[in-house]
Structures are given as C-alpha cells and as structure tokens.
Amino acid sequence: MRRSLTALSALLLLAAPAFAEDVSNLNPGITTSEILATAPVHWVSVDQIAASLEGQAPMAVGFDVDDTVLFSSPCFYYGKMKYSPTSEDYLKMDAFWTDIHTNNCDQYSIPKDVARKLIDLHTARGDDIYFITGRTRGSGGETLTAAIKKAFNIEKMNDVVFTASSENKVEFLKDHKLKIYYGDADSDMKAAIAADIRPIRVMRAQNSTYKPEPKNGKFGEEVIVDSTN
After folding, report:
1. Lesser CB count within 10 Å: N end or C end of the chain?
2. Any catalytic annotation for residue 64?
3. CATH class of the domain whose range is 42-224
4. Given 47, 66, 120, 127, the catalytic residue
5. What's the predicted TM-score (pTM) here?
6. Residues with Cβ < 8 Å from 57, sequence gap 6 or more?
C-alpha cells in the first residue's frame, strides 16, 4: 500500500502545474487601487444621448469629420508619404488638399460605427446636420460631401463646411445656432464650449495617424463609450 501511495504522489507531482515558474510577465495582475485610480470621465452611450433629447424640438447639430465620422488616416498617410515623408508640412500644401479631394481619397476612409448610430439618431429626430472640418478645401473643389453622403446613406445633406481654423469653426457654430457638436479633438471640444453649446467627445482610434492622443473628458464633456470604431 505504501508503495502504491508513493507512486501516486509522484504522478500527481508530475501532472501539477509548475507554480514555481515565474509567470509575472504573462499575468501581471492589477490592484484594486489601480482599478479605482482611473480619471473621472462622464461616460455616455448613444442610447443615453437619445434619451436626453426626448421631447426636444428638432435642432441643428454638428459633427467633426476626421476621426469622428470617418477613419481617414489612410488618406493622410498617403499624403504624408507623397508630399513630406519626414514632416507634417504636407498639411500646409494646397497640392495635398487638392489631391485628396479631387481624387476622392475619402473613398478609402472607413465610416465609424458610432457616427452611423449618431447620424441615424439625429436623422430620425429631423435634426439639421452639419459636417464641419478643419481641413483646407483646396483649389480643386471637394468630394468629401459626396463621400460622407454615400458612406452614411444620407438622402439630403448640407455641403461639408471647411473652416481651416478653430476661430472660424466657433463662428459657424454660433451663427447657425447649433446645439450639439461631436468631435474627437481637444480643439473640437474647446470650440463647442466657446460657442456655448453641448460638447460630446467621440474617441479617436488608437491607430489614427493624428498624434498625440487627446485626453478624453479633460473639459468635463460627455465621452461616448466604445466610440473608437
């Protein structure tokens, strides 16, 4: 009997996991304090935004374009590689803006799921929707309006507004009496606050070429959960 128990013990030891092995790199773990140390952010869902608008009359709302309604990094990566691979100078070149707009580079931009939900929400409410971008229009016209209209299946939409500066964006928000402005950048949130309207943050995808990443919620604005895609 003793011999059988000894053999069984040996088999159990062989089958047991090697707890002595250092697996800290595979399972670093997290303390409760680390979990609770996250920044206080006013998270909201699209459904909660919809609920907050119930009973309100149709209104004018605005959307930033890049990284808010479209993941357009492919266009900007293309432009950087073509016009100024080692700098951001391409953003100041009319040739770049004319290139991506007249050649419809935005056909390769990916519509964001959260934007589709928000656009559907405001369309159903009968709201007047504006797409407002800090892009430069370029001397060759633009195809961004058509790209957005097609991507989100919008039957009738206002032409995209090209502001090319934060100051012009604030003026547009005020002049057209917008009530909500959605955007991914800190400048979008600051523009909405300056225009005294409701700022709502759409999170920028981590693989966006637009760096550095913004601090979501830094102005106390609402931030939409799961809105990177």
Report:
1. N
2. yes
3. alpha beta
4. 66
5. 0.85
6. none
